[in-house]
């Protein structure tokens, strides 16, 4: 098998970053997430390949929090579109976990299928190579295996690294793009037979069997009031979720020119569905809360055949009100939904 | 100069406003085209995103495509963008992108009697279907239009309503105002009650409804009372939309997106969805 010595990682990253924008999990002072290797500051940053999970998900690599879409110019006789910003620069995400990678698989469904292709997303996605890190020690809030994710075999990875606990990662290329990485990194890869690490059990488990179907029958239940009671509709769950993808489109004017941009939006905000003229189909916090959890656990399933939650646990950690999606899943099965 | 971006569905094409018709105090119809005519072909009931580039975008039903010449949008002034749009003149350049959504089932309705029920600006999307039926008159049976608004001034498309459509073969137009008004000797009262008064028989008919959510709810109840089954009743829904292509998230009703799977649904389809419309 091919192995990669951990002490060669900085050199490996430097090499990859020569040809691509490389994103790796970093701890930057108080914050952790997937950052460009170019931003690595030896004095204050640490590589966070062991951290489960980095606080910020990697979705911004493919769906930036704010991105320019196109610019326009007002001129004599009207207006013209001057530039369309489709970013096709090569990217590598290194060290992504199976949950976050499954979230990207969800984004692929939403942005690339069902009649229309989101060209902005596609331009990035087509040029992104993914090296996933297999998880052998799930964190306290992890429940990916309950959501149909195999933490040892991250689906959709171009290459996989496995931490043997020694100074080596096992390196496995899985796709032609992964093979290409192996070629690029040939000077750092060695041949060595090592035992696979032992995987540990999940502390947190839920049973998704039948949940989507059950939720499709309890839309009008008063239990949603109770479940959503503590929710402050702050939206932190949607921002930290690796698979939440809703966006808003807005405009910025700069004199005679300007540009349209899109930015992450949240279904937890009242404005999200507020129509011109004031009608709002989801005016209450309970309605918005219900829509969010049904989107995650029922609607996305119905539409794309997979839940829109991958069990990464971030929203459980971050929610200031203690709302826990794994408990909602359990409630779907066990609670009394009758009026 | 960046030309047509048909490749990227989120980037508008530039069109010129070639005509503006004042329909009501707060509704104007805009005719738009580019140098070649229509920027794209639209089926009745489909939507397009209209952009005032420096201001914003809004999703509107296309109230008619005139051959390959121009698209028509009847737009009510209700918010920031529409307010601004109502202040521009002929010759102004705006953006449009589309077409979006499924449109009306014009083929499936062939051979049927058509009953159109609209309130206020709700006639804008239905107009494309009504005009389509009139254009292909022999494909459809009897055509009845029931239309109501708050006041006479608020009735859209007055020339078609009072002059053109009633002259068409086997076509009836029933108009009602919410309240009595000096000079109005037509029907007064809300649409659902007028509908029950007229009591059009359900046999061989398709009913198409659009209007304020509250009117739709009551009109649906009336139709049910009158014996219309769920497959015979079609409506076109509205929600806030940003992208038009089923990605931005907000226009869902259950797992369906109004911009993509709608805006047109029959009642049988709607009853399978959560009651959030």
Describe the structure.
Chain B: Its cofactor is [2Fe-2S] cluster. Chain B: GO terms for molecular function: 2 iron, 2 sulfur cluster binding; flavin adenine dinucleotide binding; metal ion binding; oxidoreductase activity. The complex is a heterodimer of chains A (339) and B (277). By secondary structure, chain A is α+β, with helices and mostly antiparallel strands. Chain A has one domain. Chain A has 10 helices and 13 strands. In chain A, the strands form 2 sheets. In chain A, strands 1, 2, 3, 4, 7, 8, 9, 10 and 11 form a 9-stranded mixed sheet that branches. Chain A has a 4-stranded antiparallel sheet with strand order 6-5-13-12, with no helix packed on it. The longest helix of chain A has 20 residues. Chain B folds into 2 domains: 88 residues, Beta Barrel (Elongation Factor Tu (Ef-tu), domain 3), CATH 2.40.30; 131 residues, Nucleotide-binding domain of ferredoxin-NADP reductase (FNR) module (Rossmann fold, 3-Layer(aba) Sandwich), CATH 3.40.50. Chain B is built from 6 helices and 16 strands. In chain B, the strands form 3 sheets. In chain B, strands 4-3-7-1-2-6-5 form a 7-stranded antiparallel sheet. Chain B has a 7-stranded mixed sheet with strand order 11-10-9-8-12-13-16, sandwiched between helices. In chain B, strands 14-15 form a two-stranded antiparallel sheet. Chain B starts with 12 loop residues before the first strand and ends in a 6-residue tail after the last helix. Classes of the chains: A alpha+beta (339), B alpha/beta (277). Chains A and B meet through strand 5, strand 6, strand 12, strand 13 and helix 8 of A and strand 4, helix 1 and strand 7 of B.
């Amino acid at each position: 098998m091919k192995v990669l010595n951990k002490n060669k990682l900085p050199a490996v990253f430097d090499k990859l970053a020569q040809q691509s924008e490389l994103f790796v999990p970093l701890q930057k002072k108080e914050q952790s997430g997937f950052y460009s290797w170019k931003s690595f500051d030896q004095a204050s940053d640490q590589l966070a390949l062991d951290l489960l999970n980095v606080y910020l998900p990697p979705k911004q690599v493919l769906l930036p929090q704010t991105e320019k879409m196109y610019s326009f110019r007002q001129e004599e006789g009207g207006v013209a579109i001057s530039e369309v910003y489709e970013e096709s620069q090569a990217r590598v995400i290194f060290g992504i976990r199976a949950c976050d990678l499954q979230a990207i698989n969800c984004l692929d469904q939403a942005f690339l299928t069902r009649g229309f292709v989101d060209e902005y997303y596609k331009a990035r996605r087509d040029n992104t190579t993914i090296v996933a890190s297999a998880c052998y020690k799930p964190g306290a809030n992890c429940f990916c295996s309950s959501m149909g994710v195999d933490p040892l075999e991250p689906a959709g990875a171009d290459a996989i690294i496995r931490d043997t606990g020694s100074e080596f990662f096992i390196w496995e290329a899985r796709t032609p793009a992964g093979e290409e990485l192996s070629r690029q990194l040939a000077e750092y890869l060695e041949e060595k037979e090592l035992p696979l690490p032992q995987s540990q059990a999940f502390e947190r488990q839920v049973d998704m069997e039948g949940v989507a179907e059950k939720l499709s029958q309890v839309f009008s239940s008063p239990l949603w009031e109770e479940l959503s009671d503590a929710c402050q509709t702050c939206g932190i769950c949607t921002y930290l979720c690796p698979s939440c993808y809703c966006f808003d489109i807005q405009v910025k004017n700069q004199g005679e020119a300007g540009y349209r941009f899109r930015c992450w939006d949240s279904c937890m905000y009242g404005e999200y569905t507020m129509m011109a003229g004031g009608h709002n189909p989801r005016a209450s916090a309970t309605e918005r809360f219900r829509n969010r959890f049904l989107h995650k656990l029922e609607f996305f399933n119905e539409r794309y055949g997979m839940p829109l939650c991958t069990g990464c646990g971030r929203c459980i950690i971050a929610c200031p009100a203690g709302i826990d999606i794994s408990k909602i899943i359990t409630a779907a099965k066990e609670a009394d939904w009758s009026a | 100069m960046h030309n047509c971006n048909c490749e990227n569905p989120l980037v508008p094409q530039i069109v010129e406003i070639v005509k503006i018709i004042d329909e009501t105090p707060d509704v104007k119809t805009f005719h738009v085209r580019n140098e070649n005519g229509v920027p794209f072909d639209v089926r009745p009931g489909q939507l397009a995103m209209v952009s005032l580039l420096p201001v914003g975008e809004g999703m509107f039903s296309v109230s008619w495509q005139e051959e390959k010449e121009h698209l028509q949008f009847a737009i009510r002034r209700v918010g920031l963008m529409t307010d601004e749009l109502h202040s521009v003149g002929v010759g102004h350049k705006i953006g449009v992108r589309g077409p979006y959504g499924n449109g009306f089932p014009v083929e499936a309705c062939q051979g049927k009697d058509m009953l159109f029920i609209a309130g206020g600006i709700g006639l804008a999307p239905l107009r494309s279907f009504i005009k389509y039926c009139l254009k292909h008159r022999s494909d459809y049976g009897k055509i009845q239009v029931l239309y109501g608004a708050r006041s006479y001034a608020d009735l859209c498309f007055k020339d078609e309503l009072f002059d053109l459509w009633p002259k068409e073969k086997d076509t009836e137009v029933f108009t009602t105002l919410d309240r009595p008004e000096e000079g109005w000797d037509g029907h007064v009262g809300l649409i659902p009650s007028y509908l029950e008064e007229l009591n059009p028989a359900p046999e061989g008919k398709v009913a198409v409804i659009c209007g304020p959510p509250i009117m739709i709810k009551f009109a649906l109840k009336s139709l049910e009372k009158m014996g219309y089954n769920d497959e015979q009743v079609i409506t076109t829904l509205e929600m806030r939309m940003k992208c038009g292509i089923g990605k931005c998230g907000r226009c869902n009703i259950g797992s369906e997106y109004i911009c993509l799977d709608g805006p047109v649904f029959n009642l049988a389809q709607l009853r399978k969805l959560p009651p959030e419309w």
